[in-house]
Specification:
With 480 residues, the chain is an alpha/beta fold. The chain is 47% helix and 10% strand. It is built from 22 helices and twelve strands. A hairpin with a 6-residue loop joins strand 4 (77-81) and strand 5. Helix 10 (278-302) packs across helix 17 (391-403). The longest helix has 25 residues, at 278-302.
Length: 480
């Protein structure tokens, strides 16, 4: 590890030896290190939050590799901001330790039981919350939950339960559990997982958790690519030999409910929005950003476009996005406090266009069977409820169907890109002759197959794509 001799790298502007821990964070992936850790690093540089240092933790075997890498560099993370005007690098020092990764989570449970810890935060990905895909509720039948039910401690939520039990026995107030994962109602989802797991073995303690533990909702946002050779080369360009650098866009946002009975860092001083209206911000992001990603994904994939910024530079794809956002998505978004939705979209557009991020179209196309019912179908329903068939979003659904046939317009084979890919390709092939087959996926479309005007328009668009190709169909849509 090259020391702080390189002037291009900003080092922590505070004495890390004076920090004391106040947070245990489970899941030290790239997003946490580019988001929450950066906010705390900024606070500490202001001379604040010195008693809110992070202790890192993990509950997966793979987390041990991250621990080895970070402990070897004194828990410093390299964060490189990918600004089109020029890259910048900093070493983030808000984390001071990383607990051993153990099957029984003994060190993690002991750390969370310590009175000094007032917040336990998580980034364990959406799949880490054991959500039933069909119901959207906590899944007590998930194999990992079944295995952890009798004596919870092996999962992240089991370890939280075990630590809360120790604190209760010692007369120590409960810590706040703060999810930093990118899923709607993340606090409520986390509460459901913790209380749901506890209820399997001790219903009365589950009730105690529900009554005494705070689970604030939060909305988080920052594009953070996966780390590979490109990112390690970037770190090397700053004179750093770091096996786990993080790259990210300049933009970041954190909207959070102010519900922290044991206290919190003064996050509002570094740009965090504290509000009771987190759900309004979530809805805005899901519709405009996540929905926007879906809008450019499938035409980009069918036209063999590799990168998101290249899709934004493609006149047809960019115009397709602009028309759908302004006519069919933004009008369905409820007002958001202190936010101009048009200006928010302008920021989203600039973020998508950032060539430094090098986000891939294939990544945006991933997992459409899970993303479409969350990011696109609700906007379709809102438009239909207003008496209008959303032509652009309906066309987008047809483009997704065409993509799942497994070839681009040029004939290139699309590698499997969805957990349900085999089923999707069968349905997409059948839909070429009978478009209703695609809309029969009730877990995606619900009852929309029985909406005559929507189903007819979908069938028209799908047949049109097969007949004329993506580019000509987009041209026609944009011209109308």
């Amino acid at each position: 590890m090259t020391p702080a001799a390189t002037p291009l790298v900003a080092m922590p502007a505070y004495d890390r030896a004076r920090l004391t821990p106040g947070i245990v964070h489970i899941g030290l992936g790239n997003f946490h290190r580019a988001h929450m850790a950066v906010y705390l690093d900024d606070l500490m540089a202001m001379g604040l939050a010195q008693d809110w240092a992070i202790i890192g933790a993990g509950v997966r075997a793979g987390d041990a590799r991250m621990r080895d890498a970070l402990m070897a560099q004194d828990c410093l993370s390299t964060v490189i901001e990918l600004d089109p005007q020029g890259r910048s690098a900093r070493r983030v020092g808000a984390m001071t330790d990383f607990l051993p990764v153990e099957a029984d989570n003994a060190a993690l449970i002991a750390a969370m039981a310590d009175r000094a810890i007032r917040i336990v935060s998580l980034t364990v990905t959406e799949g880490g919350y054991f959500i039933d895909a069909k119901t959207g509720a906590f899944d007590p039948q998930h194999p990992e939950i079944v295995a952890d039910a009798a004596d919870p401690k092996a999962t992240a939520f089991g370890a939280i339960i075990a630590a809360l039990r120790r604190r209760k026995a010692a007369g120590i107030p409960a810590f706040t559990v703060m999810s930093c994962d990118n899923l709607p109602g993340n606090g409520e989802v986390t509460r459901n997982a913790v209380v749901g797991l506890a209820r399997l073995s001790d219903p009365s303690f589950a009730d105690w958790i529900a009554d005494n533990v705070a689970f604030p909702n939060g909305m988080v946002d920052r594009i953070t690519p996966a780390t590979g050779p490109r990112e390690r080369d970037m770190a090397a360009s700053f004179g750093l030999t770091d096996p786990v650098p993080v790259t990210c866009e300049p933009f970041r946002q954190w909207v959070l409910e102010d519900h922290f009975p044991m206290g919190r860092p003064p996050l509002e001083k570094v740009g965090v929005t504290l509000t009771d209206h987190v759900h309004a911000y979530e809805a805005m992001k899901i519709r405009i950003l996540n929905g926007g990603h879906a809008v450019i994904a499938y035409p980009g994939g069918l036209l063999d476009v590799e990168f998101v910024h290249e899709a934004m530079a493609h006149p047809l794809i960019c115009a397709f996005l602009d028309k759908i956002e302004t006519r069919e998505i933004i009008p369905t978004v409820a007002p958001v406090p202190q936010t101009d939705l048009g200006q928010y979209y302008d920021v989203i557009r600039a973020r998508f266009s950032n060539p430094e991020v090098a986000d891939t179209v294939r990544r945006l196309c991933l997992d459409g069977s899970n993303r479409q019912p969350k990011f696109i179908v609700p906007a379709i329903r809102d438009n239909l409820a207003r008496g209008s068939v959303p032509d652009g979003l309906t066309l987008l659904s047809a483009l997704w169907c065409r993509y799942c046939h497994g070839t681009t317009d040029s004939g290139a084979v699309i590698a499997p890109n969805d957990p349900n890919w085999d089923r999707l390709t069968v349905l997409a092939a059948a839909a070429k002759a009978d478009p209703a087959r695609w809309l029969s996926m009730e877990e995606v479309y619900g009852d929309l197959a029985r909406h005559p005007a929507f189903a007819a328009r979908f069938a028209h668009h799908l047949r049109d794509i097969w007949t004329r190709g993506t580019a000509e169909v987009l041209t026609g849509y944009i011209a109308t």
